[in-house]
Amino acid sequence: MADANCIFCKIGSGEIPADKLFDDGRVFAIRDINPKAPVHILVIPRAHTEALADAPSDGAADAARCVEAAPGVAREAGLDASGYRLVANQGADSGQEVPHFHLHILGGRALGPMG
Ligand code: 5GP
Ligand code: ZN
């Protein structure tokens, strides 16, 4: 279900245009508008699922599809040899800004320890 106020739903539906690096109809990838690393890509399911904790099984399957798609997206972005980090923020302490599940792909520099 799309959420009318959700930025990622609007990008997914095309209401807000964005360059899609990958799109299989179910999940798509875009560059983060405020990159935290030289390469910062978001892999986003088209369907609105806020948190994994309360995702119906198709929401969990969408999240799994994001993980499945990530290596190909990372390879296309040139991260194959250098490596990358996958991050999914969930809730307040993670600093999650957009309450629509998504996977971050971060790379292009040594990322340091997680904190
Ligand atoms: P979160 O903190 O929810 O895990 O990550 C949300 C990410 O979405 C942030 O890194 C933020 O920069 C990015 N973001 C927020 N709004 C937009 C947008 O309109 N376009 C794109 N490409 N990225 C966005
Ligand atoms: Zn949404």
Question: What does this molecule look like?
Answer:
By secondary structure, this protein is an alpha+beta fold. It has a single domain (7-107), classed as HIT family, subunit A (2-Layer Sandwich), CATH 3.30.428. Helix content is 23%, strand content 20%. The protein has helices at 7-13, 57-76, and strands at 22-23, 27-31, 39-45, 84-87, 103-107. The protein has a five-stranded antiparallel beta sheet. β2 (27-31) and β3 form a beta hairpin. The termini are far apart. 24% of the residues are buried. The mean pLDDT is 95. Zinc ion binds at residues 3, 6, 8-9, 48, 100.
Topology:
Layout: H1 7-13, E1 22-23, E2 27-31, E3 39-45, H2 57-76, E4 84-87, E5 103-107
Antiparallel strand pairs: 1-2, 2-3, 3-5, 4-5
Bound molecules: guanosine-5'-monophosphate (5GP) and zinc ion.
Residues 3, 6, 8-9, 48, 100 line the site of zinc ion.
For this entry, give a set of tags.
alpha+beta, 2 helices, 23% helix, binds guanosine-5'-monophosphate, binds zinc ion
Tell me, briefly, the overall form: globular
Poorly predicted tracts of residues: none
The radius of gyration over CA amounts to 14 Å
Helix tally? 2
CATH topology: HIT family, subunit A
Biggest β-sheet: strands ordered side by side in the sheet: 1-2-3-5-4
Mean pLDDT over the residues: 95
> What is the ordering of alpha helices and beta strands?
HEEEHEE
Distance between the termini: 33 Å
Write down the domain tally: 1
Give the oligomeric state: single chain
Which cofactors or ions or other ligands sit in this model? guanosine-5'-monophosphate, zinc ion
* CATH architecture label name: 2-Layer Sandwich
Structural class: alpha+beta
Helix content: 10-25%
